[in-house]
Amino acid sequence: MKFFKGLFIGSLLAIPFWIVLIYLLFFRKG
Fold first, then answer.
1. pTM above 0.85, yes or no
2. Tell me: the pLDDT tens digits for 12-28?
3. What CA–CA distance (Å, rounded) separates 5 from 21?
4. CA 15 to chain centre
5. Which burial class, exposed, middle or buried, applies to 6 when counting CB atoms under 10 A from its CB (0-12, 13-18, 19+)?
6. How far apart are CA 11 and CA 28, in angstroms?
């Protein structure tokens, strides 16, 4: 349970990083 909670929080914290990464990929293509 504790591991699952940590994994969930970690994924939530990683969301902005993925958004920026995808944005940069599309921005460089465009």
1. no
2. 999 999 999 999 999 98
3. 25
4. 3
5. exposed
6. 25
| pLDDT-derived band at 29, boundaries 50, 70, 90 | confident
Q: How is residue 8 written in tokens?
A: 């969930």
- Tokens 């921005």 sit on residue: 27
H-run or E-run covering 27 = helix 2-29
Question: In angstroms, how far is CA 20 from the centroid of its own chain?
Answer: 8
Cα 17 to chain centroid, rounded = 4
| CA terminus-to-terminus distance, the chain | 43
Token duo for residue 1: 């349970």
